[in-house]
Amino acid sequence: MDDLMRLDRDGPVGILRFIRPEKRNPYSVAFAKALVDYLARAEQDDSIRALVITGGDHFSSGGDLIGFQTVIANGARATSEMVGEVHKGGQAVYQFKKPVIAAVNGVAFGAGFSLALSADIIVAAETARFCQVFAKVGGCPDTGSSWLLQQRCGAGVARMLVFTGREIDGRTAKELRVVEECVPAADFEARAIAIAREVAVHPAFGMQSSKRVMLAIPDKSYLEALDIERDIQTVLLCAHDFPEAMKAFLEKRPPQFKDR
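The chain above was modelled as a monomer; its predicted structure follows.
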């Protein structure tokens, strides 16, 4: 696992680096298992307030189709179980309790594209290349991209990218609202870390609660959203940081949060 990725630190920011860019960081079963393992470590480490995931010169070329062939030869049951294992990687990113920023350069194809979409925020290099490559190999979207892509850019754009298998660069991805920011290639990782540091200064319990709300809301009605917000906000209003913030405001001083 340690030959596939490593966890670095920049103050309160964890940086999960995929370290096989010369092979374009293929999304294998081993890669997915390493993701789950490293994310579990980062989630348990209270000193990490936000996480950046990056692949350096290449984010991920997607599913390891050559490596999958041995399993596929064993039939549908074995293949289904393998796909389930692969899905756990992106799922772990999506369900990570702390904010996740994907810093994308080079290729983000297929499952690699899905992995980027699993993050809360995507910063793309202008030279990044995104592709829902599934149509080109006779497959359909997997690793969550059928849902994640529509959440970000809407059904029409998502269908266009899936059905055509069209490759787009970072600028186009920003125009289509697939990514949140697009910057020169020299700056993509530094910009992602800067956003993570901006996030990391806030009280951890409040930030994690905000992420829970944002993940819970998309398929709910307005009234259901109000109920979710009420329940979680009630806990925060009675916790230690919110009252401290209100007291500090009245006393005209910086708040002394306990959860920082």
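The longest helix spans residues 76-94.
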